[in-house]
Amino acid sequence: MPELTPLMCVKDLDIRFAGSSSSAVRGISFTVGRGEIVALVGESGSGKSATALALTGLLPGDAQVRGEARFDGTPLLPGNAAQRNAFRGRRVGMVFQDPAAALDPVFTIGWQLDETLRRHHPALDRKGRRDRAISLLEAVGIPEPADRLRRFPNQMSGGQLQRVVIALALAGEPDLLIADEPTTALDVTVQQGLLDLLWRLNRDRGMAILLITHDMGVVADLAQRVLVMRHGVIVETGDVREIFQAPRAAYTRAFLAALPGRAGSATAQADISAPVLTVDGLRIAYSSGFGRRNEVVHGVSFDIHAGEFVGLVGESGSGKSTIGSCLLGLIASTAGRITFDGKDLGRRAPGDVAALRPQIGAVFQNPMGSLNPRLTIAESIAEPLRTHRRLDALALRRKVDRLIGNVQLPKGWRDRLPAELSGGQRQRVAIARALALDPLLLIADEPTSALDVSVQAEILDLLRQLQQETRFACLFISHDLAVVRQLCQRVVVLRAGVVVEADRTSRVLDAPQEPYTRNLVASAPLPDPQRQAEKRAVRLGLHREAFA
Questions:
Q1: For residues 15 and 324, what is the distance between their CA atoms, to the nearest angstrom?
Q2: What's the rounded Cα separation, in Å, for the pair 506 and 50?
Q3: What distance in Å separates the CA atoms of residue 374 and residue 311, rounded to the nearest whole number?
Q4: What residue spans define the domains of the chain?
Q5: pLDDT, tens digit, 9 for 90 and up, residues 377-417
Q6: Helix, coil or strand: residue 243
Q7: Is 256 helix (H, G, I), strand (E, B) or coil?
Q8: Are the C-beta atoms of residues 212 and 52 closer than 8 Å to each other?
Q9: Alpha helices (runs of H) in 13-67, residue ranges in sequence order
């Protein structure tokens, strides 16, 4: 149990950025006990990351920070930069979302560890620093650590890079680790390994952790206590099981209710007529130079009927987005047959997609990247209609207004630019444009993965409602099994370009037959602290009493 005297005590913290008329963080107070794991959760803009940056002295110089923060009795706020720098790295370690941004691409992993150890442990000689660097990489689960010292960041996977960043954070033997979205960009199996690593570091070293995240599955897996933030204010705090089982604040209840894992499973029925899309034995290869070809999709087969969501799931590099790009005509297949609306499309050249564009819509992960920043909402939605439909000005305006209304945006917003909208609102515009030509098939590639939980729920509800009205078929590409369970009637599981399992979603996710699928399902964190504790006990071979 954590000691009564807090390791970190924050009182009345207020943060205001230059040019803003209101505070991003408004007078919050909280503590982190010694050896305690505290989660600071909330949606984008809640102020959780700004709080972490203020405590470590990493806010922009023009930010106004008021309030008090004491670490082990020593004042951090108010205080000077030298005081905070002395604590940063040595007493307080930090891990951020993007490990590649935290590492210098022109220096080896060994050099960067050596530089950090030289700063924190000046008494160590060169051999001592090398030995310590190897032991740090071993501690965070990096295989063949001596060999990895010679590698550059671009020669390691995202999960390994995040482990290296954690090793760097541990070099100063900190009492507190501040982890800001440390697993957000990682596959679920890699995420599970990192969460287990953080759990072990807390157990074995007694290191406190301030975990900043929007992922309630991660919170349920790791945290002991939870602080819920909204608009710069802590709206609720409590034991992790109390927060999940009996939340008091209305916002917390709504936040939890929006989680895809709590919204039930897809129930809509597909048409039993001929499939809209049939993929049979699809193979895709990339040129790897010197006349060689690297095959990344190996004989994939599946079909989709009208009115059906089919999930295509797998880890990064499994080939799921490559298949989506091939169906859109952006890359060519090397073998196999694609039948769309009863027509054999054959092996198309990448640019030969003019006939398909009106019948296949696409929605991608980043709507800002798929919308022209100089075009208004109305102009973006009208663009495919101008290209493929002969409509007069009045008919075009009416069609665009109807599409804007269909995605539940105010008609008065037709002249707004993408930069004036939130991420969820931009995704609604992207959906309206994708459906402007009444396509038979919609390919949705990670359309909600960059969105907050409540916005994600709104977009999923919107897709479901629009499909019920127009009966389009949808290939839903995702790594989020909870979202797939909620939306998709069937699921296809990919691994390294091969279909390892395909069936009804409930059958695949509740009773997976293949070891890879079982591991994928088991790795996905659930918004249930008790179940996560039991899963870790089984996974790590621990006594269940340790989690009671």
A1: 43
A2: 40
A3: 33
A4: 275-526
A5: 999 999 999 988 889 999 999 999 999 999 999 988 999 99
A6: helix
A7: helix
A8: yes
A9: 48-55
In this prediction, residue 261 carries a pLDDT of: 64
Neighbours of 161 (CB within 10 A): 21
Residue 410 tokens read as 């105010």
The pair of three-digit structure tokens given for residue 288, joined into one six-digit string: 């790897």
Say how far apart CA 49 and CA 42 lie, in whole Å. Answer: 10
For residue 40, the tally of other CB atoms under 10 A from its CB is 27
Cβ(456)–Cβ(258) under 8 Å?
Answer: yes
Confidence (pLDDT) at 262: 63
Q: What are phi and psi of 376, to 5 degrees?
A: -70, 170
Mean per-residue pLDDT over the chain, rounded: 89
User: Do 335 and 346 contact (CB within 8 A), yes or no?
Assistant: no
Torsions phi, psi for 272 (to 5 deg): -95, 5
Tokens of 118: 């030289």
Give the number of other CB atoms < 10 A from CB of residue 246: 10
Per 3-state DSSP, the chain is made up of helix, strand and coil in percentages (nearest 5) of: 40, 25, 35
Read out DSSP for 419-472?
Answer: GGS-HHHHHHHHHHHHTTT--SEEEEESTTTTS-HHHHHHHHHHHHHHHHHH--
Give the residue from 3, 12, 527 showing the smallest Cα distance to 234.
12
- Residue 531 is encoded by which pair of tokens? 């179940």
According to DSSP, residue 544 is labeled: G
Structure tokens, 142: 């990096």
Please say whether the beta carbons of 199 and 222 come within 8 A: yes
The confidence score (pLDDT) of residue 348 equals 55
Give the count of beta carbons closer than 10 Å to the beta carbon of residue 174.
21
pLDDT digits over 77-91, tens only?
Answer: 887 777 777 777 788
Rounded Cα distance, 124 and 117, in Å: 8
Name the residue type at position 284.
I
- Kindly calculate the radius of gyration of the chain based on its CA atoms and give it in whole angstroms: 25
Best CA proximity match to 77, nearest among 95, 97, 92: 92
Instruction: Render the burial of 493-530: b for 16+ CB within 10 Å, e for the rest.
Output: bbbebebbbbbebeebbeebeeebbeebbebbbbbbbe
How many percent of the chain have pLDDT more than 70?
A: 93
Nearest-CA neighbor of 163 among 130, 128, 198?
A: 198
CATH superfamily of 275-526: P-loop containing nucleotide triphosphate hydrolases (3.40.50.300)
List of residues 6+ apart from 321 with CB closer than 8 A: 445, 446, 477
More confident residue, 275 or 77: 275
Is residue 233 scored above 80 in pLDDT?
yes
* Residue in the block written with tokens 């905070």: 84
- Distance of alpha carbon 11 from the chain centroid: 31
Instruction: State the pLDDT at residue 547.
Output: 42
Among 169, 197, 37, residue whose Cα is nearest residue 93: 169
Query: pLDDT confidence of 145, banded at 50, 70, 90?
Result: very high
